[in-house]
Design a protein that fits this description.
The chain is mainly alpha-helical. It is built from 17 helices and no strands. It is about 85% helix and about 0% strand.
């Protein structure tokens, strides 16, 4: 926290995460209240995940081509403008149509498609490789806290306050994030900048794909994470709520307990990564493999839950290994990938993961009408184990460790 540039980046991440998650939750509840339709409420997930898939290629190129600080400021201004338009439409007791809500959320997500890769790829430029694990642990823990606050406060806020008041809070957070980005001093990347400026966007995007395809760590990590988002599709709100009501005979409150338990586990796991940072740096590849397999076993255990409180316990146990692995993966990428390629790598990951997650969420929701919800979670557990076996079979990934970052 003595690193002022990292502190500013951390504040940008915290305020942006809180703003987006809080607005997403309140809008989801607003759509459900307006329509009483689970399907239309689930449309908010599509509106949020589609832009990173469509914009991933160009987002990665621009993040690597221009100063990342400028990306924060530019995308922050766009987010402020979008929420400002919503406030204008909501004045006088007005109400946004469902289509307008989808477009607004898609616009915010489109801006975040550039904002998030810029945030993550800037970390190794501000923090030396010996502190990457601590830096990523603190970022992840703070993000999970903001998400927990959003889930806890979002539903209550939309039921007790009109949407335009909540929008004022959100726009205030975006303004704070944008102004906080201004003092960040980003190290110069003159050689990288000059080289990429001579390339067309298409050429730069293709070169990023070629770099990813040949990279011994980034390639298997991206493949593993992309495939893993197939079983991630079973953890959408609709499927978890169905599991809670049909398999556990609970209600929405019981679903909320599970979400809270998971976020709590993630926060503790993120903070725990700080205490084992040296060990995590030496054995990051093995930790990724072990936790990928653990995800499968824990999912199978969750599928066998007979009561709500057993499910809550498994949801909590999920958190720490997932958090530790997320820290290991981000730190590993940041220390092994060239800084001039990081934006494209992060944007490509987001693009592929969102595409698979959208498909999986819709597919498993459709499949739940034909097979039992417990069987859905068993299938998810098996898919997680298969990704774990893939990670185990890849020697460069299995033996990888965090090394000094490359220019």
């Amino acid at each position: 926290m003595k690193n002022k540039n990292y502190l500013y980046l951390w504040l940008v991440n915290v305020t942006t995460t809180l703003a987006i998650e809080l607005f997403t939750i309140t809008i989801l509840v607003s759509v459900f209240v307006q329509t009483s339709s689970t399907l239309q409420a689930a449309g908010t997930m599509v509106a949020r995940t589609l832009p990173p898939f469509l914009l991933g290629p160009i987002a990665g190129v621009l993040v690597d081509r221009f100063p990342r600080k400028n990306m924060f400021i530019g995308m922050g201004c766009l987010q402020i403008l979008l929420v400002g338009v919503a406030i204008g439409l909501l004045q006088g007791g007005g109400e946004l149509s469902v289509v307008a809500i989808y477009l607004l959320l898609a616009g915010l997500s489109a801006a975040d498609s550039f904002h998030r890769p810029a945030r993550m790829s800037l970390i190794p430029s501000l923090v030396d490789s010996g502190h990457l694990v601590q830096a990523n642990s603190f970022i992840l823990a703070s993000s999970q806290i903001m998400m927990a606050i959003s889930y806890t406060a979002g539903g209550w806020l939309i039921l007790s306050h009109p949407l335009h008041r909540i929008a004022f809070v959100v726009i205030g957070l975006f303004v704070l994030a944008t102004f906080t980005a201004i003092p960040i001093v980003e190290p110069k990347r003159e050689k990288i900048k000059d080289a990429t400026r001579r390339e067309s966007i298409w050429t730069s995007w293709v070169s990023g794909w070629k770099y990813l395809r040949k990279h011994p760590i980034a390639r298997p990590l991206t493949v593993m994470e992309t495939v893993e988002h197939l079983p991630h599709g079973i953890w959408t709100g609709a499927l978890m709520l169905t599991f809670t009501t049909k398999a556990l005979h609970g209600d929405a409150v019981d679903w909320g307990y599970q979400a809270t338990a998971y976020f709590t586990g993630m926060i503790l796991g993120s903070l725990g990564a700080l205490t084992i940072s040296d060990w995590l740096a030496r054995y990051s590849g093995r930790i990724i493999v072990i936790n990928a397999c653990a995800a499968g076993l824990l999912t199978l255990a969750y599928a066998g839950s007979q009561t709500v409180w057993i499910a809550v316990m498994w949801a909590f146990v999920f958190g720490p290994p997932f958090a530790i692995r997320d820290v290991a993966q981000d730190s590993l990428l940041q220390s092994t990938v060239e800084k001039g390629q990081l934006g494209r790598i992060y944007a490509t990951r987001e693009m592929l993961r969102n595409a698979v997650f959208m498909f999986a969420g819709v597919f498993f929701a459709w499949a739940s009408d034909f097979i039992s919800i417990r069987a859905i979670y068993v299938i998810g557990g098996v898919l997680y184990l298969m990704t774990g076996l893939y990670a185990l079979s890849n020697k460069p990934l299995r033996d990888s460790k965090i090394t000094p970052s490359k220019e």
